[in-house]
Design a protein that fits this description.
- GO terms for molecular function: rRNA (cytosine-2'-O-)-methyltransferase activity.
- Catalyzes the 2'-O-methylation of the ribose of cytidine 1402 (C1402) in 16S rRNA.
- This is Ribosomal RNA small subunit methyltransferase I.
- There is one protein chain.
- The protein is of the alpha/beta class and 289 residues long.
- The protein has three domains: 8-116, Cobalt-precorrin-4 Transmethylase, domain 1, CATH 3.40.1010.10; 119-223, 2-Layer Sandwich (Methyltransferase, Cobalt-precorrin-4 Transmethylase, Domain 2), CATH 3.30.950; 236-277, no CATH class.
- 40% of the residues lie in helices and 17% in strands.
- It contains eleven helices and ten strands.
- The strands form two sheets. It has a five-stranded parallel β-sheet with strand order 3-2-4-1-5, with helices on both faces.
- Helix 2 (40-49) links the parallel strand 2 and strand 3.
- Residues 284-289 have low confidence and may be disordered.
């Protein structure tokens, strides 16, 4: 891509209230040549509210593979592009990751325009210890895969943040109760919108509330991490699962052993023995012990 290629702006948009948008985001959306939006109908509501007339084009999970080369060509021609999702930051549990990655590979300038985040907003109002947290996004839909993933997450000592659809919330709360055991949690609904709601409590309280009042709208679930006396949940299966996850993310095996030993409180030699049984993805440097 030539040196005079256009800039790709990753722009945060409101998660509910249209006044959540930043002044810089509004300026960028006015100045760019084109806006790539997850749903142009949603984005046009924001643009119309602030009298912004920049052309839009759709970029969603159903057309991302086909649309990305077109947008890269737009950038290569020296035209600027803003990438937005329906709410929050693009490319995080939303379309756009492919475009951003390929733009980087092509040498295209990228700039982030930070904005509202449902994850951080939910953590802020959850009323739990959230100095450290893990963002999981949406859990697998299938029961077996969902349970396996929850078992891998069960021993995390820090808060867990999930996204969930209204129709699956009650079942997800039941699964969390069964696999994670006694925890406090918060379900945050319709953040910054008119009917914003935060429901806090143990699993029984949350299940009672949402069984009686089926939820609507966007949902974020925040779960407190496992307490230190409960670290016994780090059995061999959990340790092996976490090692496998880290190796799949490209973490060096030696570093993965150190991290899992620190998280679990188990002796490093025990984690080392389990690591010998975990196959790592192929790649340079990942088999060193």
């Amino acid at each position: 891509m030539p040196d005079d290629s256009g800039t790709l702006y990753l722009v945060g948009t409101p998660i509910g209230n249209l006044e959540d948008v930043t002044l810089r985001a509004l300026r960028i959306l006015r100045e760019v040549d084109l806006i790539a939006a997850e749903d142009t109908r949603v984005t046009r509501k924001l643009l119309s509210h602030y009298e912004i007339h920049t052309p839009t084009v759709s970029l969603h999970r159903h057309n991302e593979r086909q649309r990305t080369p077109e947008l890269l060509g737009h950038l290569a021609a020296g035209r600027s592009l803003a990438l937005v999702s329906d709410a929050g930051m693009p490319a995080v549990s939303d379309p756009g990751g492919r475009l951003a990655a390929q733009a980087v590979q092509a040498g295209c300038p990228l700039q982030v325009v930070p904005g509202p985040s449902a994850v951080l907003a939910a953590l802020t109002v959850a009323g739990l210890e959230t100095d450290r947290f893990a963002f999981e996004g949406f859990l697998p839909r299938k029961g077996v895969q969902r349970r396996e993933r929850l078992e891998q997450l069960a021993a995390l000592p820090h808060a867990l943040v999930l996204f969930e659809a209204p129709g699956r919330l009650v079942q997800t709360l039941r699964d969390l109760q069964e696999v994670l055991g006694k925890r406090r949690a918060a379900v945050v609904r319709e953040l910054t919108k008119r009917f914003e709601e935060v429901v806090r409590g143990d699993w029984d309280a949350l299940l009672d509330h949402f069984t009686a009042r089926p939820p609507r709208g966007e949902l974020v679930v925040v779960v407190e991490g496992v307490s230190r006396p409960d670290r016994a949940v780090w059995n061999d299966r959990h340790v092996s699962g976490e090692l496998e996850r880290m190796l799949e993310q490209g973490i060096d095996r030696r570093e993965a052993i150190r991290l899992v030993a620190s998280l679990s409180g188990r002796p490093r030699r025990e984690v080392y023995s389990l690591a010998l049984q975990v196959r790592a993805p192929s790649g340079p440097g990942r088999e060193r012990l």
